[in-house]
Backbone:
């Protein structure tokens, strides 16, 4: 009799589980939205500093797409240290680099949808990556010099939205996430709502959390335990 009673809840559980989202891929606020309406010709560029603590040089430039949807990036970097430290990764970080050049002060990746860093971004599903995870969405740095171009649909050149990157920073990391160098984005061309060459300091776009993404998944083990306790 017990086995007969238990078969019914298990059948219902299988249906519920099939409808649940895949764990660990979507931010707490949902997937990132495609940015439209970026003003044409606006370019923000981050030029890496000449520092005696690193040999890495170059720039990361983002220009509004001609149709206003997303941002075209042009990456030109060189001077990387031993390839044993790679592949190197790079991200837009939430805060700008302070006057003392401390890359740690840039805080975590730009993450307005509160996805978190784990599990790693799947480049085939960029809407469910952190907005600032450029290498996760478009590929790691695997050569020196490193040059690439691509369109990112989830960043904004208009001051105001959380996806705006013009008042933030780029950070270059080793493969174990050690921060090697960093630079602020500044307005190089075009006209947004910003006066002068640098946007105001941003407010944080995320909770102070850089761990696993929100899974939104009910624990099946917990549900089974509850059913067993109820039936038996």
Residues:
């Amino acid at each position: 009799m017990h086995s007969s009673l238990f078969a019914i809840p298990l059948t219902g559980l299988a249906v519920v589980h099939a409808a649940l989202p895949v764990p660990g891929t979507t931010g707490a606020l949902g997937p990132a939205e495609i940015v439209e309406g970026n003003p044409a010709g606006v370019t923000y560029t981050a030029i890496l500093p000449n520092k005696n603590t690193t040999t890495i040089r170059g720039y990361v430039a983002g220009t509004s797409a001609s149709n206003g949807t997303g941002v075209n990036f042009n990456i030109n970097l060189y001077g990387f240290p031993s390839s044993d430290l790679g592949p190197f990764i790079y991200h837009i970080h939430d805060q700008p680099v302070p006057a003392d050049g401390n890359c740690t002060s840039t805080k975590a990746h730009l993450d307005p949808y509160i996805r978190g860093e784990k599990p790693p971004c799947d480049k085939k599903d960029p809407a469910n990556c952190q907005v600032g995870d450029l290498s996760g969405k478009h590929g790691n740095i695997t050569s020196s010099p490193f040059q690439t171009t691509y369109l990112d649909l989830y960043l904004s050149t208009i001051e105001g939205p959380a996806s705006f990157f013009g008042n933030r920073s780029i950070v270059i990391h080793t493969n174990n996430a050690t921060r090697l160098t960093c630079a602020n984005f500044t307005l190089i061309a075009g006209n947004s709502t910003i006066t002068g060459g640098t946007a105001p300091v941003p407010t944080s776009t995320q909770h102070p959390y850089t761990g696993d993404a929100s899974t939104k998944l009910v624990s099946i083990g917990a549900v089974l335990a509850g059913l067993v306790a109820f039936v038996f």
